[in-house]
C-alpha cells in the first residue's frame, strides 16, 4: 500500500471543496405565509365536517327501533334491482 498515493488523492479532493459562504452583514429576511382563499375555504369546510357527528341519530333511530321490535323488513325485489343496477354501472 502506498501512502503517497492516498495523500495525492486527498489533495485533489480538498481543492474541490467549496469554501464556506461569507456572512453578508445585517441583512434580515422574514418568512411569510399566505393562505389562499381556496385554502381558507378548505379549512372552514374541514372544521364543519369535524363538528358533525359520525352517526345521524335522526335517521338511524327509527330503523333501530323497527329492528328491535322485529317490524323492519326489506323488499327483496327492490334490493335485487338496486344490486343489479350497481353491477351494471361497474361493467
Provide tags for this entry.
single chain; 91 residues; mainly alpha
Structural class: mainly alpha
Q: How large is the radius of gyration?
A: 35 Å
Query: With helices defined by DSSP (H or I, 4 residues minimum), what is the helix count?
Result: 4
- Percentage of residues in strands: under 5%
Average pLDDT figure = 83
Can you describe what's shown?
The chain is mostly helical. It has a domain at 60-91. Helices cover 62% and strands 0% of the residues. The chain is built from four helices and no strands.
Concise account of the structure shown:
The termini are far apart.
Write the SSE topology.
Blueprint: H1 3-15, H2 37-51, H3 57-69, H4 76-90
Amino acid at each position: 500500500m502506498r501512502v503517497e498515493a492516498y495523500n495525492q488523492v486527498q489533495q485533489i479532493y480538498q481543492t474541490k471543496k467549496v469554501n464556506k459562504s461569507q456572512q453578508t452583514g445585517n441583512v434580515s429576511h422574514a418568512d411569510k405565509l399566505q393562505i389562499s382563499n381556496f385554502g381558507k375555504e378548505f379549512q372552514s369546510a374541514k372544521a364543519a365536517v369535524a363538528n358533525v357527528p359520525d352517526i345521524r341519530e335522526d335517521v338511524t333511530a327509527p330503523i333501530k327501533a323497527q329492528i328491535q321490535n322485529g317490524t323492519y323488513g326489506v323488499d327483496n325485489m327492490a334490493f335485487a334491482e338496486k344490486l343489479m343496477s350497481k353491477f351494471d354501472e361497474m361493467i
